[in-house]
What does this fold into?
Amino acid sequence: MAVLVPTRRGTPRLGLGAGLLAAARGLAFTGLMLAGLGLLLVILAAVLLTALGVAMLIIGNGNPLFRVVVALLLGVPGLGIGLFLAPGALLAVRRLTGLTRRLAGRWCGVPIAEPRYSPPPRQGRLGYTERLRWLIKDPATRRDLLWITVNLVAAWVLAATSAVVIGVGLIAFIGPELIKTIPPPAFPGNSAGTLIVLGLAIISAGVLAAPWLLRGYGLLAGAVLRPAGHAELEQRVRQLTQTRTEALDTGAAEIRRIERDLHDGAQARLVAMGMTLDAAGQIIDTNPEAARALLYEARDASVKALAELRDLVRGIHPPVLADRGLADALQALALDSPMRIHLASDLEGRPPAPVESAAYFAVSELLANVSKHAAARQTWVDIRHTDGMLRIGVTDDGHGGADPARGTGLRGIERRLAAFDGVLAISSPPGGPTAVTMEIPCALSSAKTSSC
Amino acid sequence: MRVVICEDLFLLRDGLTRMLQAHGLQIAAAVDNGADLLAAVAKDRPDVAIVDVRLPPTFTDEGIRAALAARREVPGLPVLVLSQYVEQLYARELLASGSGGIGYLLKDRVFDSGQFVDAVRRVAAGGTAMDPEVIARLLARNAGDGTLAALSPREREVLAVMAEGRSNAAIAQRLVITERAVAKHTASIFGKLDLQPSDDDNRRVLAVLAYLGG
It folds into this structure.
């Protein structure tokens, strides 16, 4: 088996301590395997018990009524338990394989990337079948289940072997010399000296083999559990499709909102202004005073229309953002806010306009959240760009307890950032402080060309 | 009084020129970009320059930058900046750009030519003309300030109009109270805000703006 050749990351450390440690870790992996077996049985309970029930019904002998009753007694609870527990068990399998991946990196020197499990098909509580379908359709889940199955054999052969060998050497060969109640192995020439030499040889073999076996186990785990290239691509395509759809939906909704605002606001005011001006024209000779009043009314309407257009423009793309970029636009936002906002930025160029805009509105919404909910005295906004990543932190000294699952605001920001492969992390323990960090991968254009 | 206008849209440039001429002001030059503004200011030495924020070639904040550059080149040059929107950030930059009258108004303010020309004259004379919207936002931002909360409603009104850059007489006219009453309110405001009282209208305005801009 090519995967067993431990060449990926040098040779494992050898020696008595390392060997014993490796053997112990192998035993721990075996423990994980047993847990996996338990979960597998839960997942398959429905199938197994139902099959058993049906088998009883068909091939069992004796009273047909009795057979039917037994089949029902096995099959109905089997189906029930299996179907009821399967989704939870599948999620537990994820935890288990996640732990295996991490331990493989730490103990076996075989780092295994965490797969990107597909996100739930929609927000909110999923129905039973929806949940089960979501879990089962995920290729990463199938890989997890494959590993649980392969592991049933692999853990014994690779992970437990060294500990078993050391144990046999210790108990069966050395043991009789130390504790008289243990019978020595029965083979010709089993004198005390031979047994001790043989025992030490067996233990040494176990200790020496343990690191290699553990490494082999890790490599096998990697081969099964490492996200496959094409699966990752599929995952990426799915994610892009979803975020693109969401981005388009958001864009379309925005355009509808702008259209409605223009229609109900500035357009309506212009119509009214035209009518007022016409009325003024009608009476200008007969009643100049009233005409003058109408003219002023039209002027005031134009001021209101301008104010509405200004607000609308601010909502679409704040002028300072276009003029000066993200840091100054946020500075302007901070200046308009009654909260004390400390802004720090190390941006030396400008992110692409769409990223800039998304980041601006994200921060703007977060600040609105802070002022609405957090009862904070101060807020810090920190903008930096490192390693091709725009990082923005918004921290407040309010009372914390912000929960992205409860409000739609944070979810909305998350979705809009996702269109740029951006992510949002939040830490908000009860009692505060709340720290929100956003990361958007992007390049900066140099400051010189940014104004064009 | 001689004025240089810098506005890239022909209709507005033309309208401004005509309105100011109708009020007896003389237009030394009417240009449509920042570079020409600097040249005109250096050559004609006007009493005041009126500058639109959005100018070619970038159509962003060229006008602010041109105004700041013009004031560097001709120290103390009174400048009135016009914009479709007002930002505290820009108001601060203009106020910090040295001595000489400064104005920052929404374009809508030209609809009231009397008031607008008054603002132009005020800036040309070394005074201040801040748009009411800037002041409203400054006050909103300071709403949580305990000291401001200690002002009476009338005092807050006086403070807002004063912060726009108006003299006692103008405040009295706007709020329909006597000048004596305005003087009383002003003294009370300066006492409560712990500001140095001053007879100089403009120094008073700048002190209030500095207090609000904190």
